[in-house]
Specification:
Elements (H helix, E strand, L loop, with lengths): L3 E4 L7 H16 L4 E5 L6 H9 L3 E3 L5 H5 L5 E5 L6 H9 L3 E4 L3 H15 L4 E4 L5 H7 L5 E4 L2 H5 L8 E4 L5 H14 L4 E2 L5 H16 L2 E5 L5 H12 L3 E5 L15 E6 L5 H12 L3
Parallel strand pairs: 1-12, 2-3, 2-4, 4-5, 6-7, 6-8, 8-9, 10-11, 10-12
Helix pairs in contact: 9-10
The protein binds iron/sulfur cluster.
């Protein structure tokens, strides 16, 4: 069967992830006197982490505590991943005099600034996103009075009598954002709602949906722990298109794609080009 494969233009590493990986590589390759640690897995991709570990980076738990941090060697340098960290973690790192390499994505920093401004004005903050996700946990720590909501149902249970600020996780999908925004505005016309989805997310999700409209099946490549990859897969599935979420490109076999003649391929923001190429090679070899 003649098979057409369409790859999304916006697939794979976003600017924030690229920057964090570049910071790691620069430190590992150019600063031999330093021992690099990342606070949590730098990105949600095992093969990239393995490569960085082979060059000398060590990965600490995302919630490394004082005991662990104060036990780091004197030449330690600690890389903060694109999700950022909590205010308490920043304070702890500074208190322990740790050399920090801050890979927090500039977009996450911009959301944090909105929250800090609201906090300084005594306003509560609602963060729309996944409870427990590192970006959300980090952002929440900068609010004085913060709440996380993940759904319209949770938004319907909010209680406010004065203005409050609403932001969202950078990787949220637009349908959830709009639905929760409408629910909040219906009950609280005084809410100050900021759409803080990042452009990388916006472009990947919009393009994935467009591909769903013209393809017979979709492949989404990304790590299991990657929020934005999971959302891409959910968006494709909810369009009704047969969707294959590939989390382990090396061991993935394309046999189930055999019946499809037009296949769309996209990838989350933490998926390296090498994983995309691997999948494309397997698809093209499919007879
Ligand atoms: S997905 Fe957006 S916010 Fe997250 S690292 Fe990439 S550019 Fe930054």
């Amino acid at each position: 069967m003649k098979r057409e494969i369409i790859v999304a233009r916006e697939a794979g590493f976003c600017a924030g992830v690229r920057r964090a990986v570049q910071l790691a590589n620069d430190s590992l390759e150019k600063e031999s006197g330093k021992k690099l640690f990342s606070l949590g897995p730098l990105i949600h991709n095992p093969s990239v982490i393995e490569e960085l570990e082979a060059k000398g980076m060590s990965v600490l738990g995302p919630a490394a505590e004082e005991k662990e941090l104060s036990g780091l060697p004197s030449n330690a340098r600690l890389l903060i991943r694109a999700h950022g960290v909590t205010r308490e973690q920043y304070d702890l790192l500074q208190k322990n005099g740790i050399d920090i390499l801050d890979g927090t994505c500039p977009h996450v920093i911009a959301i944090r600034k909105i929250i800090e401004r609201a906090a300084s004005e005594g306003e509560p903050v609602v963060i729309l996103g996944d409870k427990g996700h590192a970006e959300v946990t980090g952002l929440l720590s900068f609010a004085k009075d913060g709440t996380v909501v993940s759904s319209v149902e949770e938004a319907a249970a909010l209680k406010f009598e004065k203005p409050f600020t609403v932001v969202c996780q950078s990787t949220l999908d637009s349908a959830t954002f709009e639905a929760v925004k409408n629910e909040i505005l219906k009950r609280f016309p005084f809410a100050k709602i900021r759409n803080t989805r990042c452009q990388a997310t916006e472009k990947r999700q919009t393009e994935a949906l467009a591909l769903c409209g013209v393809c017979d099946a979709m492949i989404v490549i990304g790590g299991l722990g990657s929020a934005n990859s999971n959302r891409l897969a959910e968006i494709c599935k909810s369009s009704g298109k047969e969707t294959f979420f590939v989390t382990d490109p090396k061991n993935w076999e394309p046999d189930d794609l055999r019946p499809y003649s037009k296949i769309g391929v996209t990838a989350g923001a933490s998926t390296p080009q090498s994983d995309i190429d691997l999948i494309l090679g397997k698809l093209r070899a499919l007879v």
